Amino acid sequence: PPTAEACTDFLCSFSANPKNRRKGVTRARCHGNQFCRNTAKKIMVRVFVNHVDSYTGRELSKVLAGSVVGAIAEEKENGDEADSKPPPASDQADDSSNRYQVVGTVREEDAECPGWVQEIVQTSSRDELLAVLMSCDIIVYHIVDGAGQVEEASWAIQVLHDQLSVISSQKVFVCVSSVLTWARSKPLDPEEPDIAFTEEDYRRRRPHPNFKEHISAEKLTIKLGKTVT
Question: Where is this region: Disordered (predicted)?
């Protein structure tokens, strides 16, 4: 199966405060600096990940649950020094209360809850699922595997966008899609077909015929992100 690194992700952030709203961008970068610039200050960031019992969901949730809130922002502020020197020992780095708190859904009803996931969400309706999403700071939908997840992810970002008037704090929506949305893209240079695409080339991508719904979900994520001004 494809790895998380082989996927294209699209980010959209929401906030009821116009000063805090950002336009959608085409790569989920550092989430930490949006929530906690000072890592000495403990803060709980609740993250939703769909299908944590699938390959992609398991890896995404595991990485998030093992990450300290604000750690990436701190490394970026330190610049190259962060790469040349080992990180200082810190009691906080081992404090689970300062890590992302992951909740999620499962693909199989009898699936066991991974040890790093705090809660498996069982919802019988979209209204219940929306309530869970509204309680989270970050919503991660991977549409790489799992029937019905493309439609559910598209529904989720649309309904969250519709709830802007009642959202009181910033929320980040990340859609992790398949690299096959680039499968039919024309090479940048016909004479050098091995030249790699860059992030800025996302408008040129052409999907495999079986992944047209995936690219539609990507475009919706970007579109709604750009309408949050």
Answer: 76-98
Place of tokens 């494809």: 2
Distances (CA, A) of 117 to 140, 157, 225, 226: 14, 22, 28, 31
Domain map (residue ranges) of the chain: 4-226
Residues ≥6 apart with Cβ < 8 Å to 51: 57, 104, 105, 106, 107, 142, 145, 146, 149
* Strand 8-14 relative to strand 171-177, pairing: antiparallel
Cα distance between residue 48 and residue 58, in whole Å: 12
Cβ(57)–Cβ(49) below 8 Å? yes
The phi, psi pair for 141, rounded to 5°, reads -115, 115
Q: What is the pLDDT of residues 165-184, one digit of tens each?
A: 899 888 999 999 999 999 99
Could you state, in chain order, the average pLDDT of each consecutive group of 10 residues for the chain (229 residues)? 43 47 33 39 84 95 92 61 46 65 93 93 91 96 91 97 91 95 91 87 92 96 85
